[in-house]
Amino acid sequence: MFKLETEEDLLKAFRPRDRPLVERSPEVTFPLFVKHCFTWAHPAGGRVFLLFAVPGGAPTGIAFDTNGGGASVAHLCDWCRVPGLGSRVGLLTTRLNSKKVVGVHVCSDLGCRQRLEDEADRTGRSAVPAIQELIARMGAFASEGLDIDLTGVRR
Length: 155
Description:
Elements: E1 2-4, H1 7-12, E2 32-34, E3 37-41, E4 47-52, E5 60-66, E6 75-76, E7 83-84, E8 89-95, E9 101-107, H2 112-123, H3 128-146
Antiparallel strand pairs: 1-2, 3-4, 4-5, 5-8, 6-7, 8-9
Helix pairs in contact: 2-3
């Protein structure tokens, strides 16, 4: 769990190149307490935002571009492993630099945590192990795919 006190703290969680893209929606209020991860959509659409922290790491934010609905075939979310049609699981992209775009097939609304909690409730299990794996996958994408320092030192 982590807490962001101000909008400045929120922006510091994102890479400098993503900070101008971040726009809060009404559900982003301060102080912001984040249990595992927190997501919201850009008020005008076209972009979704993710905040998370790996154990021992700094709050990390990623701004994703949405690419519209995908094909009407089932896809498996790379992070939560829940299947969904192209409108629910699709390719989200973000810029690595001015020449490269990195993408991941995930729940289009970044609602992975909620889906894992719902599944755990239905089956009578704890959601904690699945959410820990989810955060680890998010961290791997940020670290390996985007070269984000999860400790926050190089931001």
